Amino acid sequence: MKLVIVESPGKIKKIGSYLGNGYVVAASFGHVRDLPAKKDDLPEKYRTEAWANLGIDVHNKFRPYYVRSSSKSAQIQKLLELSRKATEILLATDADREGEAISWHLLQILKPTVPVHRMVFYEITQSAIQQALQNLRPLDLSLVAAQESRRCVDRLYGYEISPLLWKMGPRLSAGRVQSVALRMVVERELERIQFVPTAFISLDALTEHGFTARLTHHHNQRVATGKDFDSKGKLKEGAYPLSKEEADAVAAQLKKHPLLLQKDEEKPFTQKPPAPFITSSMQQEASRKLGFSVKKSMDVAQKLYEAGYITYMRTDSPSLSDEGTQGARAAVAQHYDPRLLPANPRVYASKNQNAQEAHEAIRPSGKVFKTLQQAKKDLSDDEYRLYELIYKRTLASQAIDAQGRQRVLTLNLEDHLFTASGKTYDELGFRTLYVEGKDEQEEEGEKLPPMQIGDAVKVKKTTVKNNKTQPPARYTEPRLVQTLEKAGIGRPSTYAAILTNIESRGYIQRTKNTLHATWLGVAVVKFLTEKFPRFLDYAFTAEMEKQLDDIAEGKRTRLDYLNQFYFEAGGLAVELETYRRQPPADIDFTPEILKEAGLRVRIQEGIPLLSGSGKAVKIPDTLKPDDLTPEKALELLGSGETVTIAAPAATSQRRVLGTHEGQEVSLGVGKYGPYLKVGEEFRKLKVHSSAVPHLTLEKALQLAEAASSENAVLKELKSGRGKIQVRRNERGMYLASGRHFAPLPEGTSLDALTYQQASDLIKQHQEGRKKRPRG
User: Fold this and answer.
1) Which residues of the chain have a pLDDT value below 50?
2) How far is CA 15 from CA 20, 128, 162, 306, 366, in A?
3) Which domain holds residue 344?
4) Total structural domains in the chain?
């Protein structure tokens, strides 16, 4: 029996039917091992190690310690049993770095004694599965190293920096890519806050022929439009701000006099079809046309992939295989019109220099694409709608260009100029099959009649409109993904998780299809950009992704990459040490427009507060940051329920006191209270947190010595790997073994005490605690 292991159970039936007898297909249900979430997940012997909280021994070549996923225990046991019966094991996890890593982890758990091969496919069809069987390969350890490097970097960044945010509120976290994505959303919100809306006037004239012409020049001066004002409302040079009185005067003239056609310009244009879908473009179109979120797009695409309808959906390559190209051209010829096909197939290449995925674009699977009629019968409504989008986009990518003529009419009334534009398609080409959606409406123009230069055109109606410049549009989910992708930040397999993380932490909220930053998100980005600017830099983050690509291609080693990220100049460990040496500082993220009004925004226990004139109130969750104007703020302060602003808490940030016996001594407040760090050794302090800012080097050393003597180790008992200590505190002597403790009976002779006796005392004490009634 040959054992084939895939990631998702949804693939088992389909792949099993293509493999036939002699094969058993089983699923790993995703990752089977990962870094420990907390040190208690480690075996007890490792929990006291300096690296236990991280799960990575940074001083031992960044050795990660992996633990099995507790939720996968039953499935792992099933795979172990199947592997013992197998004559060969084929690791058929997904065809990307994560899939390669899952295969490697399976290998570490199963420890097979039979031949093991990697089986790779990008679509679930009979021909693809048979081809994969004929092209088995060993595990690609460079891909595994790239995934492990990414996991280590994400863990180090998240676990080292996140605790610094906890003074703002619980559960706050930072992430290597998620924080950069959040920065994009926050910066857009701040741009909107700083934006000064500016009024401008426009004049439209509806003509007797049914088209509308707009006033573009008043007394031969170009009339200002919204694009002629900067974000502060300043008018750019060369544009004239039309007043309402001037517009009304021209409108009055048009009631008496016609417009005269001065120019009739026509230019041919060509539109090329959009490329086949990559992950981000599929997400964007599914949002525009189907109303899908990024997560829903990926969930539905996963089902289509597992059902054998489309190729693998995590890709940043728009290229089609020969099979995909031929399938698309055949479908156009059979189901639409052969005349829509160009003489030669179209070839697409990625515009993204950092594109990592080797497989092709998202397209219908197989040599012969499943028809829309067949899909309608087989699929759910959401699955069909997404398949139709992918099907038509793929076919359109192989169709001929659309061609037409762009026409612009210039009409005048004395020295006032009006323009009207229109577009005519002579050949719809690919547009017969598919028209790409737009986030912002583009004017296609109007149907313009045949006219002669000098023709008089009567105006039926004029419209003088008061307009306002608009702030930069907020991101939609797909537009944010596209922006990240263009910047070389993140990868197709990570985008959905990034958005989920920053939303679940309360850093962003969504309103209909748009995303906006919360005050908590603004505060987090302000802190990180001030204290760790390099790690929030777009170019730096993109370069890190590029270096991961180099590891995947075998051009760079994992250890070199991690050393540079963590230990070298500008590395995380260096930056953290610099941060800890700085005096505690309050981060003020209040926008200038509110500061100028004497107002302040702050975060207390994760809740945004507005303060001013000696009063503080909560900011409603429904109030977006750019909607908090000074006027709205004063209204809130006048009507909201007053809250108390807590006194600044003792900071967990370390303060360097000096040196003792050649070692640096620093003082801080951690999860379990104040502590002193002497060199690499941590010592507990028995003092209230409020006293920490006032301690001197001499006093801190005295307190540390007093605290350590109270818990002094009087004797240590060992048996094999087991270790039990006899200690003393203010209550007397007690036994300590890991997390287990027990009081030592009075009169016990330490000289005669054995390891077994101490172990029995601890067990008795633990059993007694379990039997003790609660409540």
Assistant:
1) 353-354, 356-357, 650-651, 774-775
2) 9, 10, 42, 9, 14
3) 279-396
4) 7
Distance, CA of 736 to CA of 711 (rounded, Å): 11
Burial class (CB in 10 A: 0-12, 13-18, 19+), 752: exposed
End-to-end CA distance of the chain: 57
d(CA 433, CA 429): 8
- Cβ proximity of 4 and 21 under 8 Å: no
Environment class of 183 (CB within 10 Å of its CB; exposed 0-12, middle 13-18, buried 19+):
buried
Residues 416 and 490 grouped into a single domain: no
pLDDT at position 688: 66
Q: What is the pLDDT of residue 733?
A: 82
Domain boundary among 532, 555, 581: 581
Q: Are 623 and 695 contained in the same domain? A: no
For residue 358, give the nearest of 530, 171, 137, 602 by alpha carbon. Answer: 137
Check which CATH number belongs to the domain holding 73 and give it: 3.40.50.140
CA distance 502 to 174: 9
Return the closest-CA partner of residue 152 out of 60, 249, 274.
60
Instruction: Give the pLDDT of residue 585.
Output: 73
Tokens 């084929």 correspond to what residue? Answer: 90
Q: Which helix (H) or strand (E) holds 67?
A: strand 67-68
Task: Work out the angle between the directed axes of helices 294-306 and 381-396 (0-180°, nearest 10).
Answer: 90
Return the beta strands (E) in 572-698 as ranges.
600-604, 607-612, 615-618, 655-660, 663-670, 673-678, 681-684
- Count Cβ atoms below 10 Å from residue 135 Cβ, excluding itself: 12
* pLDDT given at position 470: 94
312 is known as an active-site residue: yes
> Cα separation of 214 and 226, whole Å?
14
> Per the domain annotation, does 361 fall within a domain?
yes
Give the pLDDT confidence score for residue 699 in this predicted structure.
80
Quick one: CA dihedral 29, 34, 38, 41, positive or negative?
positive
Do residues 366 and 327 make contact, with C-beta atoms less than 8 angstroms apart? Answer: yes
Which amino acid is present at 761? L
Distance CA 699, CA 691 (A): 11
Output the CA angle 111-112-113, nearest 5 degrees. 125
Q: Looking at 65, 157, 305, 312, which residue is catalytic? A: 312
Is there a domain that residue 302 lies in? yes
From the list 89, 99, 77, the residue with the least C-alpha distance to 7 is: 99
Report in angstroms the alpha-carbon separations of 329 from 127, 312, 336, 373, 618: 19, 20, 10, 18, 60
Angle between helices 141-161 and 538-552 (to 10 degrees): 150
Question: What local confidence, expressed as pLDDT, does residue 651 receive?
Answer: 47
Both tokens assigned to 346:
């179209």
Question: Is residue 721 assigned to a domain?
Answer: yes
The CA angle 661-664-670, to the nearest 5 degrees, is: 125
Domain boundary among 710, 733, 759: 710
Same domain, residue pair 617 and 670: no
Q: Give domain status of residue 48, yes or no.
A: no
Rounded to an integer, what distance in angstroms lies between the CA atom of residue 591 and that of residue 22? 67
Q: What is the pLDDT of residues 343-364, one digit of tens each?
A: 999 999 876 544 544 579 999 9
Element (H, E) at 56: strand 56-57
Beta strand residue intervals within 688-755, DSSP E: 713-719, 722-729, 732-737, 740-743
| CB environment 443-454: b (16+ within 10 A), e (fewer) | eeebebeeeeee
473 CB contacts (<8 Å, ≥6 apart)?
439, 440, 514
Closest CA to 521 of 189, 204, 106: 189
